[in-house]
Amino acid sequence: MSELQLNILQALDKKGTIENSQNEFPEYDSQQVQAALNSLLARSKITYKTIEKDQFNLTEEAQDIVKNGSHEFRLLETISKLQQLKISEVSNVLGPAGKTGQARAFKNGWISKNGDELVLNAKIDNTNLPVDETALELKQLQEGSVLDAKKITELKKRKLVTVSKAFTFKVEKGVEFSLQIEKFDTDITSDMVITGAWEKANFKPYNFNSEGVLPESGALHPLNKVREEFRQIFFSLGFSEMPSNQYVDTGFWNFDTLFVPQQHPARDLQDTFYLKDPLVAGRPEDLKYFNDVKRVHEEGDFGSIGYRYPWREEETLKLVLRTHTTAISAHILKQLAQDPKPARLFSIDRVFRNEAVDATHLAEFHQVEGVIADYDLTLGDLIGFMEDFFAKMGVHDLRFKPTYNPYTEPSLEIYSWHNGLGKWVEIGNSGMFRPEMLESMGLPKNLRVLGWGLSLERPTMIKYAVSNIRELLGHKVSLDFIETNPAARLDEDLHN
Amino acid sequence: MPTISVDKADLFELLGQTYTSEEFDELCFEFGIELDEDTTDSVQPGERPQLKIEIPANRYDMLCIEGIAQSLNEFLSRKSKPLYKLSSSTISLTIDESTSPLRPYAAAAVLRNVKFTERSYQSFISLQDKLHTNLCRNRTLVAMGTHDLDALTPPFTYKFLPKNEIEFIPLNQTQPVTGENFLEFYSKDKNLGKYLHIIEDFEKFPVILDSTNKIASLPPIINSERSKISVDTKNVFIEVTATDRTKAEIVINQLVAMFSHYTEEIFTIEPVEIISKHNQESRIVPNVQTRVMTAEIDYINSCLGLKLKAQDIIALLLKMSLIATEHETDSNLLNVQIPITRPDILHQADIMEDAAIAYGYNNLPKTKIASNNSQGASPLPINKISDILRIASAQSGWLEVMPLTLCSHDENFKFLNQLDDSKAVKLANPKTTEYQVVRTSLIPGILKTIRENRKHSLPIKVFEAGDVVFKDETLERRAFNQRNWAAIYAGKTSGFEYAQGLLGKIMQTLRTPWLENPSGSTDKGYWIEEDPENKTFFPGRGAKIFYRHRNGQDAKVVGSIGVLHPKVLNNFEIPYAASAVEINAEIFL
């Protein structure tokens, strides 16, 4: 316990209340007093209130005035003594402040001008000079008297007085008041545990109103966390992961196999990244399939009249960065045709679009894609399955809108009601793959294939309230964001 | 998907009722178009409220108000499909052999006694624009011209003429332009300049001539001022030239189907005789006959999960412009007449979809797939490995980052003090230099992420497990992905030992011991050896990572580790010292 703390306790013991700490302990400044009080407060020895007061401080000039009189009064005294004073002599006699004194002496009506001489004003009685009010006011302030605000303002203007806040304290006894301060231990140590010292120790009360020390930790990327949620949903529904680790694909697999005509806008340079090195792809191994795809585009087959345009092999052998993971699904479905049977497959991986980049578009992003192959699947199966799939993400109340995709017929956009936005929002796209695509592969006519897809970024942006995709995927992501973002629980309802 | 702006009041008049925005939105939703915007609340004084409607890319018949109203009226069972009629042909268009092979196809039609209003005329012009941009692929595949027939003298000829024989006053010009200065004249034109590439390499230019040998148009760029069409034009001559015969037919069919609404004898079109002997393409166009396809009733029911009778399906299809009748002999078949406005119907799957839309997607019975899932669910093996690496890295206190796989050529090579080893895939048409190559290393992306996070507290410890891509000419797709794992430590000191420690943790997680004395061992394990060749690292501070998958096997170099060269850090504008480690993750498979 410090001496000041002891003094405070003793004073309280004697008086019951300390009305003004400044008067009681003038030798300590208010910060020292407050520190001692806080320490005692923490032990409930005392309580205190802070009293805030303006404190007036005299400048050096003002202190000089208190001692020697104001500049104007000293000029008055001088003129009174000498009868008159040349204006040019003022600075010599009174120093640099003489001019200030001269101005105020005029203002006070003490002196007047007679040619280049200063003389006493006729009203002034040489034997009974007026009171030096400036010096008097400053003296009063110094002694702690109260001046009216106008005068203070004037003195402040004349830079004779500065104002600061002063704190004093009114102190009273606390509930645990005593003249001693017990020693507190802050923590249980291993020594205490071993020696048993904890039994006699006094422990400082714990402050539970704090966050604790956050652990130093690594973190997974939020986008990958959401990806993992999707993967677990797929696994729980019996889907196996497709080998989607193939970014470069051919025009053939990315478009032609999916019955996307060669003049389709998606194949434009504006939309698709083409490669210049390497430049030309190899033909697919299965040349019969290659020709079947050509025929179904050019002339039609399998009950289709086809697109009836000249199909060019050069287009199929162009290399692209895949624009959708459906290019991979096409490969896998072609493999499935070797031994046709029901299958449930999915992939979540990057796709590439040669788009202008903005807050919601990047040249690469992740596509979530699911595929179900089975005999005699119906549109009702697709709709029913979409309800089950999205229910696993906590998304209910789906509606389906007819749409157009070159490789699915029927095609259904999936909408859900968004509580936050108060409207139906599109959450994915789905459909039954076209017979032209499946039957060219050699799949039996009644083995139908349902497919659906959505982007990984969009639900992640909604889950983590990210408005700019560049702050989620790519190098512009903030590491703080990665470190602090919560678990991805797609089924967690953030709106109710 | 094209977005069509239609006059709201006109559309509702054509639909015979007004709708609130919500009601109309609902109708669009069920039919499969999308109400993008209703401008009623933002309309300026003097303007008429518009509805902006998104149309599916295959519905060329709905690119104008006439088509949208017609389709919706049929969907609402308010109107039936128009029967388009041909009057007798009076005009011919001869296709000269000179048009082959550059733009060999042409078609034409005449609309007699048309009565346009200002708004229907604008709709006619706008439909041509929409078709030009969408189906016609910016006039490359098909281009159309519409003329005041009374200003021309039929019959017509389509041929390629030498440039020095071409001179005409183009549309909206006052002075003649010659074939020789044609390209230059239009090179500065904002609207037409973008189409010049189609003909710029042609020695001769395509022209449509009338019988006085005067030019009516120079497709696919511009018509003549002489035959300029206006709201007062009575007889409209439509000509279409194309490189794609199918699309030429589709285009002329849409134009006549939509604008025969305005002929005195409604839905009547005067065909044109096309004389094209050299390629056996002589015929009368347009052909407005419906196309007949058959559709299987049990296929439609099976796909929809319904048990509809023939008559039910016939009623549904009628709402979608398809007139179906029961097949003469086969009770499982329907004969379906496909009108000229529905070239998108290619297969009975398309008919099945239309039946589903008419039935209502949201009215279909929802069913569960009888699960046939004997194979069970399994992850892709490399993704499983990758997840093990990611989780071990995060558990070790490192942060996962996900940079892009596309980067600039410099970032992938020069900035790493490396020369182009010709293994990277290069893009032909990126819009920015940010996307020139597919990365062959994860290091540039991680360094860029550190650069953007310079203000983060030090040290920065980040990792990524992601794919890089290498060329391989032996593969059909000429390239393959490789899963890599990499980590970088950046701080006041290089932190090599931390990068090395993390590598050790990864190896330990995948049961790979460190071999202290590799030359004396043939055991499974890993070790590192100085690599003076790798310029990414500071001299004497870079190493190769060796890995032996099984006891007794040969060891392979599977990655690198080292203190990054200060030049590399400068290149990526990183003001810290740093160490990096990168390995091929597929070795653990």
UniProtKB/TrEMBL annotation, chain A:
Q: What are the BP-aspect GO terms?
A: phenylalanyl-tRNA aminoacylation
Keyword Nucleotide-binding attributed: yes
InterPro entries given in the database record: aa-tRNA-synth_II (IPR006195), aa-tRNA-synth_II/BPL/LPL (IPR045864), Phe-tRNA-synth_IIc_asu (IPR004529), Phenylalanyl-tRNA_Synthase (IPR002319), PheRS_DBD3 (IPR040725)
Q: What is its EC number?
A: 6.1.1.20
Q: Gene3D superfamilies, alphabetically? A: 1.10.10.2320, 1.10.10.2330, 3.30.1370.240, Bira Bifunctional Protein, Domain 2
From what superkingdom does this record's organism come? Eukaryota
Record's subcellular location: Cytoplasm
Which molecular function term from Gene Ontology is one that the record holds?
A: metal ion binding
The UniProt keywords, alphabetically, are: Aminoacyl-tRNA synthetase, ATP-binding, Cytoplasm, Ligase, Magnesium, Metal-binding, Nucleotide-binding, Protein biosynthesis
User: Where in the numbering of this chain does the Aminoacyl-transfer RNA synthetases class-II family profile domain appear?
Assistant: 224-486
Tell me one Pfam family matched here: PheRS_DBD3
Mention any one GO cellular component term assigned to this protein in its UniProt record: phenylalanine-tRNA ligase complex
The UniProt family comment states: Belongs to the class-II aminoacyl-tRNA synthetase family. Phe-tRNA synthetase alpha subunit type 2 subfamily.
Protein name as annotated: phenylalanine--tRNA ligase
Taxonomic path:
Eukaryota, Fungi, Dikarya, Ascomycota, Saccharomycotina
Automatic annotation (TrEMBL), chain B:
Uppermost EC category: ligase
Database matches in NCBIfam families: pheT_arch
Q: What is this protein called?
A: Phenylalanine--tRNA ligase beta subunit
SUPFAM superfamilies reported in the protein's UniProt record? Class II aaRS and biotin synthetases, PheT/TilS domain, Putative DNA-binding domain
Write down the chemical reaction(s) this protein catalyses: tRNA(Phe) + L-phenylalanine + ATP = L-phenylalanyl-tRNA(Phe) + AMP + diphosphate + H(+)
- What organism does this protein naturally occur in? Wickerhamomyces mucosus
Identify the keywords attached in UniProt to this record, alphabetized. Aminoacyl-tRNA synthetase, ATP-binding, Cytoplasm, Ligase, Magnesium, Metal-binding, Nucleotide-binding, Protein biosynthesis
The cofactors required by this protein are: Mg(2+)
Q: Which family does it belong to?
A: Belongs to the phenylalanyl-tRNA synthetase beta subunit family. Type 2 subfamily.
One record GO biological process? phenylalanyl-tRNA aminoacylation
Chief location bin: cytoplasm
**Could you tell me which residue ranges the B5 domain spans?**
288-366
What's the Enzyme Commission number for this chain? 6.1.1.20
